[in-house]
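Weekly sync, protein design subgroup
Attendees: M.S., D.O., the rotation student, P.L. (late)

Item 1: inverse folding check
M.S. brought a backbone from last month's batch and wanted to see whether the design step gives back something sensible before we order anything. D.O. pointed out we never logged the input encoding, so this time it goes straight into the notes. Structure tokens as presented (240 positions):
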């Protein structure tokens, strides 16, 4: 297996060097950035397997860096911050962070979370290989490789988590996916938000497709359990 690469974005030299030293000991190749601008440049150049990202950075804060990274690439992002309020946590997760740790933190716990995030990424990659890269039926086209979605030729722009959620449902048509399963497979085992996050993303997904009169699938709510995607027959005249 190729050596895993991690980008550490931290303006405090002591913390950054400590992380670099310990990650290096664990066999990771580490890139270091002291500010947001430098972080984006390194990420675009090296495409790391994971990013450890401080919230408070000079030039560009961690939330903005996280938002831009999530738009360009699908890699696990672990945010670090000295702030502990629930609002900060929610905002960090909403812009695309996969996990969140407050300072001071345990190095052992940090390493465990990095391992878990990378393992989750590996499982997602296996799912992708095991499934069809492109699914196309009833005027609907879902391309996992290009991460694009079209309905009757119109592109449907989905946020990263919306795309991953729809991908999971499409891989299991007719099977109920519990909220816990969805959290595990889409957000990862270290997600500590509420299960209503799933409900919110399902609502957003439905809103993205509501302008179409006929859809070849529907997302069904199974009350008290979770959600199921059911494929449906679409009359030929409705497919254009």
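Designed sequence read out in the meeting:
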């Amino acid at each position: 297996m190729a050596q895993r690469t991690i980008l550490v974005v931290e303006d405090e030299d002591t913390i950054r060097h400590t992380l670099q030293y310990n990650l290096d000991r664990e066999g990771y190749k580490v890139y270091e950035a002291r500010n947001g601008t430098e972080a984006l440049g390194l990420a675009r150049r090296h495409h790391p397997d994971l990013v450890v990202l401080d919230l408070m950075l000079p030039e560009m804060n961690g939330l903005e860096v996280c938002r831009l990274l999530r738009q360009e690439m699908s890699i696990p992002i672990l945010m670090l911050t000295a702030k502990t309020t629930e609002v900060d946590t929610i905002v960090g997760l909403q812009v695309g962070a996969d996990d969140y740790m407050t300072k001071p933190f345990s190095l052992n716990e940090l390493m465990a979370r990095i391992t878990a995030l990378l393992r989750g990424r590996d499982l997602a990659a296996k799912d992708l290989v095991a499934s069809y890269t492109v699914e196309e039926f009833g005027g609907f086209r879902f391309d996992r490789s290009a991460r694009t979605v079209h309905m009757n030729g119109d592109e449907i722009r989905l946020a990263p988590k919306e795309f991953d959620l729809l991908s999971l449902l499409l891989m299991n048509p007719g099977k109920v996916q519990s909220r816990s399963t969805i959290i595990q497979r889409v957000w990862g085992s270290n997600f500590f938000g509420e299960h209503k996050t799933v409900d919110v993303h399902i609502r957003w997904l439905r809103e993205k497709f509501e302008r179409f009169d006929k859809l070849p699938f529907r997302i069904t709510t199974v009350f008290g359990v979770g959600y199921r995607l059911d494929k449906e027959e679409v009359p030929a005249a409705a497919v254009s």
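Discussion: The first strand starts at residue 5 and ends at 9. The mean pLDDT is 84.
Action: P.L. to compare against the previous round before Friday.
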